[in-house]
Amino acid sequence: MAKTYQVTGPVFEVTNDMIAVQKGKDRWEIGRDASTKVTGDLKVGEKVTIEYRMTATSVEVKPASGAAAKSKSKAAN
After folding, report:
1. CATH code: domain of residue 20
2. Number of domains in the chain
3. Is residue 36 part of a domain?
4. How far apart are CA 58 and CA 16, in angstroms?
5. 64 domain-assigned
């Protein structure tokens, strides 16, 4: 299972699929769905602590570049 992280700050915006929190000078947008557990009255201005995990939604493997790619192609000949 992926590592759990936390962000704490005031709520900037709330939608059905996202919570935006002010963290210092940055705006953090954390996705949410029907399975997200919310304790208390989630609304703009409230201070919250959000527990989240980083989950990959897609992975694109890039071809090797530079010398590594050239040496592989020479080895194949």
Report:
1. 2.40.50
2. 1
3. yes
4. 22
5. no
Positive or negative: CA dihedral 62, 67, 73, 75: negative
Over the chain, what is the mean pLDDT? 89
C-alpha torsion angle, residues 32, 36, 41, 43 (rounded to 10): 0
Alpha-carbon Rg for the chain, nearest whole angstrom, is 20
Q: Tell me which H or E stretch contains 75.
A: helix 67-76
Whether 63 is in a domain gets the answer no
SS3 46: coil
**What tens digit of pLDDT does each residue of 14-70 get?**
999 999 999 999 999 999 999 999 999 999 999 999 999 999 999 999 998 865 555
